[in-house]
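Minutes, project check-in
Item: structure for the 221-residue chain
Input as provided by the requester:
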Amino acid sequence: MKKVLNLLKNSKVKMVIILTVLLFAYTTVCAISYAQNISTDIANSVFRLHVLANSDSDEDQALKYKVRDNLLQYMNTICKDCSSKNEAILLVEENKENFKQIALQTIKDEGYSYDVTINIGNFEFPTKNYGDISLPAGFYDALRVEIGKAKGQNWWCVMFPPLCFVDISSGVVPEESKELMQENLTEEEFALVSDNSNNEIKFKFKLLEFLGNNGLITAKK
């Protein structure tokens, strides 16, 4: 202990410690700032769909998927030619009541009487993989569909670019969807969400994931 105290009295050692602390603080601030900017830019290029089941019962979960399937079918008819996130959001805004009626009709056809709440807003999402595309945790604009009490497990996908139509069996995102995403992201941002072969890219994505999952960054519109 005496040796440590004596070392701390040494002006050179003290200076090294101070510089080390300052360097660590600077590096941390830079990392958070970088992750914040990247995460926000990615979120600003994506519009998601979020469906919440009434409960976790098998029946309510099955109903959630029925509602999802019919919403996706309708969504594909109105959003398939969208070239930007804002265009997709505008179309969904204009057709919000249609989304609600499709959900309500599906619920009625399946023998239930749950109400449906439809909102377009900015919501928190965990890290999620869509085939060979990965999106970091953060806050994303989304169409949120709440069935009944909305207390059950949820389901989400990406309305723009249309990653909802990923072939689950192959786990590959259609090239058209990747091209749309690439057009709306910088080269580095696209590499972060699509490339798992580069160690530096993987490290940067893990940084986004860690900071997002621990609430140290929030991507907002």
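Outcome recorded: The longest helix spans residues 11-43.
No further action items on this chain.
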